[in-house]
Amino acid sequence: MTRLSLKARLALAGTLAILAALGLSAIGLTALFGSHAERRAALELSVHLDQLLSGLEQQDTRLAMTISPADPRFDRPYSGLYWQFAADGKVLRSRSLWDFELPLAQAGAGASPRSSGLYELPGPDRKPVLALIRNVTLPVDDGGTEVTAVVALDSTEIATARWKFAVDLAPYLLLLGGALAMAGWLQMTVGLRPLRALTKRTAALRRGDAARMGGDWPAEVEPLAREIDELLSARESDVQRARARAGDLAHGLKTPLQALLGEAGRLRERGETQTANDIVMIARSMQKRIERELVRVRTQGAQRRTACNAATVVEGVVAVLQRTPEGGALDWDIQVPGNVDVCIDATDFSEAFGALAENAARHARNRITVSARTDGSTLVLDLRDDGPGIREDRLARLRNGQERADESATGDGLGLAIAREVVETAGGSIDLANTDTGFRARIALLSKKSKFG
């Protein structure tokens, strides 16, 4: 049962409940019909007995029936309807009994009648009968004899009627079962609807379309939604504190690094160029490492990803790079539509795209192209440059995240690592590849709109 879905469990439980209810209904209704049939038979036998007693007389020392019973079955052997009178050891019985005598001793003082007031006795041809037994006293004119009067009916007739009733009842029970199954399916569909809404709301949280689960939930789901909201609040508080600590760290390290770079400048003025260059390289490497750790602290643990306009961020980063010596000498071709949002914080997207664009500007010869397209609900952003590309062995390490920061003096490996960490934290991916005309970096992120092809 643990591997079954909730819907399958409810369907299985509902099916078993319906089958049990229909089975019990069939048994109960059939038994009720049998009891009703027996009571009806008892009434009919009582009418027959009253009629027969009206024609019973004692002639000399024998009992005699002076009228002919209205029901012809009394005259047909083993017909299923019988009468018998006994007095002083003498027995008068119907022709339908033929040579069989009902054993009245089995209905003596120790026997109890059925709920209908009938006794069950063995009858002709080994078939049980239901017998109505009455002790009467004949009038004084007929001698005042005490007579045991019996009228019996073949019980197989009632059993047959009960069986036919069950057969007739079966289609209606099946129809009822189908109606109950449809009602159960409807109940299950309506009952599980809040869970589907819960799934959609959590997906909206992941995309950044919603900030909280909200409070418009049924009483059974509301505690879960409240716990999720409290968890989101706690995680956002953790992220805010982490970002605050990261800012403090950046501010605290900025002054020592600037002092170190200033010392390198003074060494260069004194002619110690190599030492100054080594200090600058170490300081820049430390700066890059600090930037990477700051990005990791800022992005880790973020539960809700806000959305930003892809074109706005790309154009802003390119505008900054165009003011640098390397970027200003290049031809930038931007083909990013302005009506597409990506599910990532604007600062994080600027950090990731900026790292890739900075590397492209560093290695490009003349031209950089930025284009975008949508693939389903994903925005695919391509950044292409006409530079020399990257050696295949190093490209493989960059793709696998195995490139160390100190393997490149220019820091492009660290920049790519920062970009990958930011994008993957946002649920996206980065792909790197050499092309016939240079190098291509591709960013794939979940988009909120897909209005272009």
From TrEMBL:
It catalyses: ATP + protein L-histidine = ADP + protein N-phospho-L-histidine. One of its GO terms (biological process) is phosphorelay signal transduction system. The chain crosses the membrane at residues 169-192. It is found in: Membrane. It comes from the Bacteria. It is an enzyme of class 2 (transferase). SUPFAM superfamilies: ATPase domain of HSP90 chaperone/DNA topoisomerase II/histidine kinase. One of its GO terms (molecular function) is protein histidine kinase activity. GO terms for cellular component: plasma membrane. InterPro entries: HATPase_C_sf (IPR036890), HATPase_dom (IPR003594), His_kinase_dom (IPR005467), Sig_transdc_His_kin-like_C (IPR004358), TCS_sensor_his_kinase (IPR050428). The keyword Transferase applies. Keywords: Kinase, Membrane, Phosphoprotein, Transferase, Transmembrane, Transmembrane helix. Pfam families: HATPase_c (PF02518). Residues 248-449 form the Histidine kinase domain. Its EC number is 2.7.13.3. This is histidine kinase.
